[in-house]
Amino acid sequence: MAEHAEGMPKPGRGNTSTSSVSPSFFITINPNHMKNHLVYLPTDFVFKHMKLENSTVMVYSDDGTGAWHLSFVFKQRSKSERGRGRGIFCGGWSAFCEDNSLKSGDICRFKLISRDEMEVTIERN
C-alpha cells in the first residue's frame, strides 16, 4: 500500500511503498516541481533508504532510454525546527523533467536499486 510521508494514505504527494522487493515512492508532478527546479522526497523513505548526506543519485528510465544524475541534498533541521530533516532532488531535476516532457499530474515512481541508484517509471496523466 502506498503511504503518505506522514503515515496517512494520500494520493498526489510523495507516497511510499515497501511491500514489494524494492522500496519505492511516488511523486505526482505539480507546477511547483518544475518552477522551483526541485522536488522533496518522502521523509520516511529518505530516512529508511537514503544516505543522509548530499550525494548524486543515478536515475534510470525503466525502458532503458535515459539516465540522469540527480543531486540529492539532505537538509538536517535544527533542534528549533520541527521534523527530522528533508531529502531533495535538485541539480539535474530540471533536465529530468524536460527530457521526460513531464506535465502536471504525471506520476513518477522511483524504485530503489541501491542507495545511489533508482529506476523511474512514468505514468502520464
What are its keywords?
125 residues; alpha+beta; At1g16640 B3 domain; 15% helix; globular; disordered N terminus; DNA binding
Question: Uncertain segments of ≥5 residues (pLDDT<50)?
Answer: 1-13
**Major β-sheet, in short?**
8 strands, mixed
**Total domain units:** 1
What is the CA–CA distance across the termini?
21 Å
- Any idea of the CATH topology? At1g16640 B3 domain
Region (Disordered): 1-20
Pfam families: B3
Subcellular location: Nucleus
Domain TF-B3: 24-125
Polypeptide structure, described:
- This protein has 125 residues and is α+β, with helices and mostly antiparallel strands.
- It has one domain: At1g16640 B3 domain, CATH 2.40.330.
- The chain has three helices and eight strands; from the N terminus they run ββαβαβββαββ.
- The protein has an eight-stranded mixed beta sheet with strand order 1-2-7-8-4-5-6-3.
- The longest helix is centred in the middle third of the chain and has 7 residues, at 43-49.
- The two termini are 21 Å apart.
